[in-house]
Each structure stands twice: as C-alpha cells, then as structure tokens.
Specification:
Layout lengths: L2 H6 L2 H20 L17 H9 L6 H21 L1 H4 L5 H7 L20 H17 L3 H23 L6 H15 L3 H4 L2 H14 L9 H8 L5 H5 L7 H20 L5 H20 L1 H12 L7 H8 L34 H4 L5 H11 L3 H9 L4 H7 L5 H14 L6 E2 L2 E5 L3 H12 L2 H12 L7 H16 L3 H15 L7 H12 L15 H15 L2 E4 L18 E4 L4 H7 L23
C-alpha cells in the first residue's frame, strides 16, 4: 500500500467503516427490498442516511479511500457470514441448503470434510451496498466497481494465503456471483457501460485465477463460465471481449496442464477437468468461431494425453459453414470452395519464432538451401536439461508448433504441384524442412512433430488441405516404416476417443486407408498382432462401413469390393464398438498404448 492508504487504514477508520456497514446491514434486512425488490430501484432515498455517513467520512473521496472502505466491509461481511450461522441454523433457507452442497474450497480437500455452515445475509447486504454506491456515483460507476472488485480480490487472496487448506471459497463466490447478477439485470444505469463493467470482472478473475489462488479454482471456473458472464462477454460488438476470455481460458489450461500431463487426477482435479470439458462444449456449440480463431494458443498448452479436449477445440467450425460429409464416396476435397479460404489464427506465432533466432535460421535456409541449417533448426527445438526434467519432454512444443505454421503457411510456395498432392509443390523448401524433421527427429520429437501437423486438420480451409497433403506425402514418400507407424498412431489415437472428431482428421485417415497409393493394409505394423488388426478393422468399419479381413497373398476378393480396398482383402460386415473398446488398449506396433479414455492416452516418446 502507498502512504495515503496507510494513513487512512487506522483503527478508528476501520471502526467507523464497520459501524456504517452494521447500520446498512440492519436497514437492508429490515427493508422489504431485501426480500421482494432485488433490483434496488428507488432504494437511494431509503438509505440516504447511510450514504451521507459514507460521504461525510471521506470514504469515497479518492481511490485509496474507496478501496479501504470496500475491503473492510468485505472482511467484516465474511466474518459475519460465519458468526451469524449458529443463529440462523435450522432456518432451512434455500441459500444455506445450496451452500452446503458446493464442492470443497481447496484443491484436493477430502469430500468427507463437512463444509462450515454459513449465513449469507451480510454477504448479500455488502454486494447491494456496492451496487447502490455505483448508482450514486453516476458517470464514475465503472471506477467504483473497479475499486470494489480490487478490494474483494485482495481480501480473497490474503484470506486464502492466511488460511491455507482451511480457506473457504463460498463467501467470495457468493459476493462475485451476486455482483454479476445485479449488474446483468436490465438497468439504464449500467447498460451503457456494459463492456467496461465486464472488463472489470475480467481483470478480477485474472488476478485470482487458479495459478495464483488454487483454493479458489472451483468457484473461479463456475464464475467465468456463468451465463451472466461468458456469453455476454463473447457477444460484445466487434469481438472486443474475445481476447479477455481467451486469457482466462489459457490460465485454466495452464493450471490443469501438470495434472493432465502426468495423468494424476484425484477427485478434485477430475471434477475440475469435467467442468472444463463442459465449458468447452458450450463454446463449441454457441461460439465455435472463438475456438477456431484461438485454437493455436490452446494447443500450445494442452499436454499429449489430453486428446478429448484437443479434439473438442479442433472440431470447431464457423456457424455459417456446412461441413461436407467426410464419409461421402468420391469426395473431392480439393474442389470444395471453402478449401481455398485461409483460416484466421489469432496468435502471434512469428514472435515465438524469435526465440534463439530460429526465424532467422528458417528464413536463411529458404533463401540458400544450406543443409547445415536444418540440423541447427532441429537442435534449437530442444529444451535445456533443467526444463526437460520440469516439463517431462525434451522439446519446446510451442516453438515447434510455431515453426510448422510459419514454414507451412506463412512462407510463399514455389515450383510445380506434386501429382496426387494438390496442396504440395515440387522443389519446395518448406517440404524439405518437413522431410528432414520427420526423418531425423528421435521417436519423441517425431511424435510431437506429427501431432503438431495433425493439430491443423480441422474444418475445410487452406491449412487443413495443406497439412493433410503433407501428412499423406510423408507417409507415401518415406522408406522408414517407423515414420509411417507414428503417422498412423497420431491419427488413430485421436479417432478412438469419444466424439467429436475434427473433419480434417477424418478425411485424412479415410484417404489413407482407402487410397491404393498408400498401401496402408500391406504395412507390417497393421498386421503385427491379431489385436492390432482388430483395432484397424473396427476403425475401418466406423469410417467406411466395412471391416477388412486380410487374406493370404494373391487370394482373390470374395464378394463385392469396396472402392478403397486392396488386392488380397475381403470385405465383410462386422466389427464395431465392442471390438474397438477391446482393442483400444493395444498400441500400434512398438508405439505406446492409445486408450479411448482421454485421461489415459499415450505419452510422448513411447
């Protein structure tokens, strides 16, 4: 605190504030407004005496005084919520019953620990006082709310730090939710400043995010996904609220990342994960363009085992687009009108490439084709040993993702198109970089590299087409069976989890197993074990409507042949979900296991 606030924060000032709050509390609970008219219309005249005491005490004179007033009131209201509970016990109010059902305050708290009883009358009185002062402030209402939220967030963080595992999130959740609901009701006082008020809440949620206050994580997730906040922020004109909400979602993913990466989910983190999935499902349904535009920054954070959330985000497509059926026979992807439209990516990936001057190396290689630069580029993607131990990976995943997007899309294309690969061109330095990395990475690096390519297999657009062609070209052109196996693993483990599946992922895998050019069913990793073959049959049944039973070399087809079948393959009806579930525990060749449960998906490096 600065000297001004220290001078104000004296024992006498705090005592005066508590006295004023008690006067307000008694008047508020005695008024019919507390039970019948929650909007507070016409309440200013009733509470003139309290407002005059606040003004005469100088508590709204400047920002420091406002913050002190709100902070002391918040602290006292929380204390009263506990103190008043015994007197209110047995009243059976709806609020108290709901509060006892809320999850525990801290991450990992035992569910057997009974939640302390609370009476929220003082909490409700405090939030109504904040709203009343905002209305009195007139044009300064946003500044009044900003100071109130700043005081609440400071008190929340101090309380969490002071109490540790005994911290209770419920009173602060109630305060913030009450304010959201009060300011969301139709009121001419607040409608003109709707975006500024939502911005103030965004800043507050930022300061008390789970990375800073883990014990507040459940309440925080419920607040940012609340119907009074998330939809209103994302529907602000010109998408001005998108970046603010993206920052909050990134903070949530960063908090979950260590638990998901190590697949260490206790009951608390599993509950938080479920809440995150549900929020993403709402975004996928109501605001798919938001996920489309920011998918790149989200994929930078999500760990390898997090297949379900990644698929959710990558499955988003614009609402004005009708996706072609990926299972349609003879679908000509390169003739779709949308395939020529570049998607919008709201991520500054070129800035990421400035790390270790990697962008300079890439640009130099594009001009000179100097082969030694390829080794330099590969080496700069590795992390120092200390970070490797901390992050459980040898590679800088955000830097690798930025490199792929910059090389594959940002740079101009050269040369003639390759036959059968409409999105690729001969003598292309971008393709040289891709081929070098695919053949010279170790197992973990190649897996991350191929996964980064698969992250661009989304709805029909230029990026989806280009990277789909890259993946198929790598499969066809390489002579290394391990590369083909890893490409198959990356695609397959994203397909055997629950829906939704990205459109580009489906059309790439269908092309791989149908087109005779790739001879998919003749590769050794497909037939290395009966369980593995059953897994591929089940996936083929899902994608093509048939399962493929391999016959001995040279045996003729029995029955009708499907368009994508190979010589020596018999088509028959069968397979399905039960076989998929049984075979999903089997990896692809020497690759690690690929589980249908997104929390049990394989880790990088085999």
């Amino acid at each position: 605190r600065n000297r001004g606030s220290e001078a104000l924060d004296t024992a006498s000032s705090r005592e005066t504030i508590v006295t004023i709050f008690e006067e307000w509390y008694n008047m508020y609970n005695a008024s019919p407004d507390s039970l019948q008219n929650r909007s507070g219309r016409g309440g200013n005249q009733v509470y003139t005496a309290v407002l005059s005491h606040i003004t005469s005490g100088g508590f709204i004179r400047n920002d420091e005084a406002k913050e002190l007033f709100f902070r002391v009131c918040c602290e006292h209201a929380v204390q009263r919520a506990y103190a008043d509970a015994p007197a209110a016990a047995g009243s059976g109010t709806e609020d108290e019953q709901r509060s006892s059902d809320r999850p525990g305050g801290e991450d990992g708290q035992s569910e057997s620990t009974p939640a302390p009883t609370m009476h929220f009358a003082a909490i409700d009185a405090f939030t109504r006082l904040v709203v009343l002062l905002m209305k009195v402030a007139g044009a300064d209402k946003v500044q009044m709310l900003t100071r109130a939220l700043l005081a609440i967030s400071k008190e929340l963080r101090q309380d969490a730090e002071r109490k540790g595992v005994n911290f209770n999130q419920r009173p602060y959740f109630r305060i913030l939710l009450n304010l959201l609901m009060e300011l969301s009701t139709p009121d001419p006082n607040f409608e003109q400043a709707n975006f500024q008020l939502l911005s103030a809440f965004c800043n507050t949620f930022h300061t008390c995010n789970p990375l800073r206050v883990p014990n507040f994580a459940f309440a925080w997730l419920e607040l940012i996904s609340n119907r009074m906040f998330m939809p209103k922020l994302l529907m602000v004109k010109n998408q001005r609220g998108w970046l603010m909400f993206q920052r909050l979602l990134v903070q949530l993913l960063y908090f979950l990342e260590p638990y998901l990466r190590r697949v260490q989910l206790n009951e608390s983190t599993r509950l938080l994960y479920k809440g995150t999935v549900r929020m993403l499902l709402v975004l996928l349904h109501d605001f798919p363009e938001f996920l489309c535009d920011y998918h790149f920054s989200f994929c930078d954070i999500m760990p390898i085992p997090c297949v379900q959330i990644r698929n959710l985000i990558l499955s988003a497509f614009p609402r004005n687009m009708k996706l072609p059926d990926p299972f349609m026979p003879n679908l000509k992807v390169d003739l779709l009108p949308a395939i020529k439209v570049a998607p919008r990516i709201l991520a500054n990936y070129t800035t990421t490439l400035l790390q270790q001057h990697l962008k300079h190396d890439v640009d130099t290689y594009m001009r000179t084709r100097e082969q030694r630069l390829l080794e330099t580029i590969k080496d700069k993607l590795r992390l120092p040993k200390r970070e490797t131990l901390q992050l459980d990976t040898k590679y800088n995943v955000p830097l690798l993702n930025a490199l792929l997007l910059y090389v594959g899309v940002h740079l101009p294309q050269h040369g003639k198109s390759l036959p059968g690969q409409g999105g690729l061109q001969q003598n292309n330095p971008s393709l040289d970089i891709f081929m070098y990395l695919a053949h010279n990475f170790d197992y973990e690096g190649r897996y991350l590299f191929l996964g980064a390519i698969a992250n661009h297999l989304r709805y029909p657009n230029t990026h989806t087409h280009y990277f789909s062609c890259v993946l198929l070209y790598l499969f066809a052109d390489t002579s290394d069976e391990v590369v083909r196996e890893q490409i198959t693993r990356v695609l397959l483990e994203r397909l055997i989890v629950h829906r939704p599946h990205p459109w580009g992922l489906l059309i790439t895998f269908i092309e791989l197993i149908k087109n005779r050019r790739y001879e998919f069913w003749n590769h050794s990793f497909v037939k290395c074990a009966p369980e593995v073959e059953k897994l591929f049959q089940s996936v083929a049944f899902t994608c093509l409507g048939t399962t493929i039973d391999r016959q001995s070399e040279g045996e003729q087809l029995a029955g009708q042949t499907a368009p994508g079948s190979q010589p020596g393959q018999q088509l028959q009806r069968g397979g399905g979900g039960a076989e998929t579930a049984a075979a999903a525990a089997v990896g692809v060749g020497p690759a690690a296991q690929a589980q249908p449960n997104p929390m049990e998906a394989p880790t990088a490096g085999g």
